[in-house]
Amino acid sequence: MEHVTEKQDHQTRVKQATEAGKAKQNPDAAFRLGYHLMAPSGWINDPNGLVFYKEQYHVFYQHHPYDETWGPMHWGHAVSDDLVHWRHLPVALAPGDAFDQSGCFSGSAVDDDGVLTLIYTGHNVVNQETDELYQNQNIARSVDGVTFEKSEANPVIPAQPVGMQRDFRDPKVWKEDGSWKMVVGSTEAGKGQVLLYQSSDLENWEYQGILAKHNGGNEGYMWECPDFFKLDGKHVLLLSPQGIEPEGNRFHNLYQTGSLIGEMRDGEFVRGAFTELDYGHDFYAVQTFLDGKGRRIAIGWMDMWESPMPSQQEGWSGALTLPRELNLSPAGKLRMKPVEELQLLRVTEEQLKQNEISGTFLIDGQSNQLELEFDIDLTISAANIFGVNVCCSSDGSERSTIQINRSKGTITLDRSYSGIGVSGARTAPIEIGESLHVRLFIDRSSIEIFINEGETVMTSRIYPKESSTGIEFFTEEGTMKLRSAHLYQLKNSWLTD
Ligand code: FRU
């Protein structure tokens, strides 16, 4: 009987949470995005449970449907046939059972022989005043991909290994050589690390040891959201460390997301230095999955902890990035480029006639839901500093500046005049060769910049006025020669029943 009551309880909580989220929907709110993953309303953070299941793409996310600020974490849910057009599904997980009393934290999903299985962290606050809490790992299953039942075996991993600290979260599970493997974020003696587990049935897990740990330098005190996979002949560990200190132009966000690239040698992961994956202000907790075509696709949270979030005035907060395909460059650099399906978003195409820019050249972008793609010929461009201002207001008070400095080999995204709430610049390294390919996606309150097939990527939130639709190419002393430039208006990608 007890079990039946608990099951009904979970479904009741799920229903309430779904209805609460629906009731506060406001699709016309000024900062709502047109073609990015978001919740119907309320707060979201990390992407969770990315999976290709029964020929559809499922994306879950950390969600607080009752408020636009972080709170007891639920799992929100959306589905797509093509990675572009999305439909909201009911909330998948609600907290409040004995093993996830205070939150269903981040985790992953697998297709277990037709059963969609979520593996997630139970967050349990024992005493708020003394800050006593514990974290464990749990599973929930669905046969229809919509309604999830938490397992009677929960918690499937009740506690972290002896001697480790209580931060023990964000399981990422995959199948390898016939068994299930899991990486989990952890910390020991104030230093981040990733633990490895193994199972034959997703319920009984055996601890295998530490897969990777802090090198003693500037690598953070806790490694959140690990993800481990093979890519183009190497092994890649993605992680989101807390506590990395700024160094020059690097690591200026509160927390970082990046990669350790290496090889498995005699069961040991031998890896290089931690490298950021995206150099913008707002990219965190990335997760990947393999799609039906063998691609490794990454989606991140397009915000940062403790950042200003002006959309909270509109009753919502948080979005996920565009899906990006990962690969390694011939030099071994991790690249992220927008998945090719995103071309389905294009509704109009305009080819810019001007091919040589000296000083400034202004066009009307017509909206803030667009893609701008251009190729600069560096063999005959003379300017050292050049770039483009986007989301420019006609009175000159608003703009988001993307500036390339050729002699320094850098790109800078400056949000000093990007609208309300946000500020500050981020600078990233770029390869200066014979040409520079720039692809920009603007979606009302977001900007994603992909340089040279995703070698350098920057993602940031901006909050300009709806009327700030100007695009201004600029050079400082000298010319910039464009081989080609295209502007595409992009459509909304949310489907309603
Ligand atoms: C990362 C994170 C995870 C945790 C979740 C809680 O942003 O802190 O480690 O599971 O968010 O919402």
TrEMBL record:
<feature type="region of interest" description="Disordered">
    <location>
        <begin position="1"/>
        <end position="25"/>
    </location>
</feature>
<dbReference type="InterPro" id="IPR006232">
    <property type="entry name" value="Suc6P_hydrolase"/>
</dbReference>
<protein>
    <recommendedName>
        <fullName>Sucrose-6-phosphate hydrolase</fullName>
        <ecNumber>3.2.1.26</ecNumber>
    </recommendedName>
</protein>
<feature type="compositionally biased region" description="Basic and acidic residues">
    <location>
        <begin position="1"/>
        <end position="12"/>
    </location>
</feature>
<feature type="domain" description="Glycosyl hydrolase family 32 C-terminal">
    <location>
        <begin position="342"/>
        <end position="488"/>
    </location>
</feature>
<keyword id="KW-0963">Cytoplasm</keyword>
<feature type="domain" description="Glycosyl hydrolase family 32 N-terminal">
    <location>
        <begin position="36"/>
        <end position="338"/>
    </location>
</feature>
<dbReference type="Pfam" id="PF08244">
    <property type="entry name" value="Glyco_hydro_32C"/>
</dbReference>
<dbReference type="Pfam" id="PF00251">
    <property type="entry name" value="Glyco_hydro_32N"/>
</dbReference>
<dbReference type="InterPro" id="IPR013320">
    <property type="entry name" value="ConA-like_dom_sf"/>
</dbReference>
<keyword id="KW-0326">Glycosidase</keyword>
<keyword id="KW-0119">Carbohydrate metabolism</keyword>
<comment type="function">
    <text>Enables the bacterium to metabolize sucrose as a sole carbon source.</text>
</comment>
<dbReference type="InterPro" id="IPR001362">
    <property type="entry name" value="Glyco_hydro_32"/>
</dbReference>
<dbReference type="GO" id="GO:0004564">
    <property type="term" value="F:beta-fructofuranosidase activity"/>
</dbReference>
<keyword id="KW-0378">Hydrolase</keyword>
<dbReference type="InterPro" id="IPR023296">
    <property type="entry name" value="Glyco_hydro_beta-prop_sf"/>
</dbReference>
<dbReference type="InterPro" id="IPR051214">
    <property type="entry name" value="GH32_Enzymes"/>
</dbReference>
<comment type="pathway">
    <text>Glycan biosynthesis; sucrose metabolism.</text>
</comment>
<dbReference type="InterPro" id="IPR013189">
    <property type="entry name" value="Glyco_hydro_32_C"/>
</dbReference>
<comment type="similarity">
    <text>Belongs to the glycosyl hydrolase 32 family.</text>
</comment>
<dbReference type="InterPro" id="IPR013148">
    <property type="entry name" value="Glyco_hydro_32_N"/>
</dbReference>
